[in-house]
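User: I'm preparing a small set of examples for a lab meeting where we compare how different chains pack in three dimensions. I only have the primary sequence for this one, and I'd like the structure in token form so I can line it up with the others. Please keep the answer compact; I'll paste it straight into my notes.
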Amino acid sequence: MGARRVISMPVMVVTMTMAMMVIGPKSCWAAAPYSVKAAHTTTTATTSTPQPLGFMRGAAMGMLPVIDCNGTCSKYRANTTAPIQDAIAILGDYGVNTIRLRLFIFPYPNNSYAGLESVKRMAKRAHAAGHNISLDIFYTQWFFGVPYGVQRRRPAPWRNLTFDALLDATYNYTRASVGALVAQGTPPATVQIGNEINCGIFFPDPDKPCSSGGEVCQCEDNWGNLARIIAAGSRGVRDAYPPANIIIQLGASKDLSHGGQWAHKFYTTIAAAGAPYDAFGLSFYQIWGARNVSDLCFIADAARALPDKKIYVIETGYPYKYGHRFQPGKVPGQVFPATPAGQLAWLRAVLYTVEHGLWGRGAGVSWWGTEYANPCSGDECAAFWDANYTGLPVLTDRGFRPSDPNNPPPHGVKCPPLDAEKDTRTAATNRAREQFGPSDRLRFLDGWWR
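Assistant: Understood. Below is the structure token output for the 450-residue chain.
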């Protein structure tokens, strides 16, 4: 996700051991380095071995080391009478099998929680609790913000590389990062080449030509470059850990609600240009434009064209209360209330649709914002815990439990067969063309209107 990741949080910068600096709540950092235990006692999980991935039931937990001081000041509990525990252990007790971690390249000092050393520590925590690892490599130094494309440009150390040298750097960085996780016994089950790359990777600097990077919205003839960048990253993954599923992620909420034409063009064009990958990774949120869970069926064109690709909803979420960007009236025709019950219902509907509705190709669902209990993320209050760090029904009622294929939850769907949707898809595509003019195109494709 993009600039919406920013949260309002009292912070202080603290120098830590291992030359790490992170930003975290004052309450966490009142003591000293991360190796010092907080005064209260927390309950942690016994070490267990992750099972083969199977269907991903995932939770993004990248900010957790900031919130819980690298596990030393956790406040999370499953319910009001349960002991304080490591949030990762609680998730495992309630059906989550995968922890998704974001990796920034050359991170700034105040976001080093997403640097490689911090990601390695988090991977060890997750692995010890029996979870698989899903690695999201951003190839940027920060979340994507405005003005357009600034944070999607090359990181500073790579700014003056030739394009061929940029490909080598992408390969070497990817191989080294995945290899570091493999070397410590926490290999990633899935790896993303970029985060929500609707308009590509490595946007050109203002004084550089399109050919210097892999942007494809303003540089419409640049698909070959983007495919080469993805191929370099994919080769790095394969050389470090061949079993990993390679995912290409799009911010797809708005596009799928209008027929999925960009997802179809994007995935088929990069494949035709030689980009190797295993799966579609869809971001799917009502706050960013999804109208109904059934909008997921509009990935059909891409699925039909590329029958070997799995389908993940690699990011989704829904608020348990109104707040931040998600306010009454934000979602036209809203059918899921912004309540704990509505949050659980959203997950159950999305999970059922991916498990049973996507032509046998659904490979998993992962929640975003899982750890943001207090404060909420900058966009919506979608955590699995309330402001008191107590588990919500989306967690305690086992929202990730397997779905019964013959008993769909409200709004969960089985999509029509891939050969029976042409009229519906065409109508949705025409509606999209009518509603989005040229001035809206760039924002739409780049995911700002997910």
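A couple of notes for your slides: Confidence is low (pLDDT under 50) at residues 1-46, 431-450. Residues 100 and 134 are 4 Å apart (CA to CA).

User: Perfect, thanks.
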